[in-house]
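[audit] Reproducing an earlier prediction to check determinism. Same input, same settings, fresh worker. If the tokens differ from the archived copy the diff job will pick it up downstream; this log only records the rerun itself.
[audit] input (225 residues):
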Amino acid sequence: MIVYGKQVFFYILQKHKHLINEIYLAKECDKATFNNIIKEGFKINKLDFKKAQSMSKNGNHQGFLMDIKEYDFADFAVLKKQNFLVLLYGLCDIGNVGAIARSAYAFGVDGLLLSNELPMSGVIRASCGAALDIKIALKKDVLSLLNELKLEGFSIYSSAKEGKDVRGFKFSDKKILIMGSEGFGLPNKILKKSDEILSINMKNDFDSLNVNAAFSILCDRIVNG
């Protein structure tokens, strides 16, 4: 699995080097940067511009690429024993999913659940590597997932424009926050399963916030009150 970009490259090199298969450079770098790579014990493979563009599928690799092990999804049976989960229902934008993974890890979320398959190399890149630090499970049968979590004592909170203002809301110890897709939000079948539907009060009349921005606000309220 190819990941690229300077920030994620060095994040993985410093925190997850056991995942690295090969390292590639497609640019000359300063001595200090080069030594930081060499000291980790990896052989550096040089790439020309054309090969680097091909490997990154014309992405902005900044001259730093690596081949890492395929992503290993977490076991849902393990995640459902945790206290704070986030379900991303139908999200398709890699940038949003990566940004949410990064924020979720920063806020101390115990795990993410995806309802649809995504290219995890892109999620890792968009999260600046944080997707390797937070447990992520793939669970396509969302209604069964929610039923299992109810049996485990979880309260289900969904994000929707018509919900209750999140400010001052008291959350259960075991909880899952559900964020809907960028274009369609959450379907009624999910909202009906929810214990509460939450929204963010806005001063000006506007359709909605970006899903990552909304998630960060809701997550901060859940974690910090």
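[audit] rerun output stored. Observation attached for the diff report: The beta strands are 2-4, 20-25, 44-46, 64-68, 84-88, 111-114, 136-138, 155-165, 175-179, 196-199.
[audit] end
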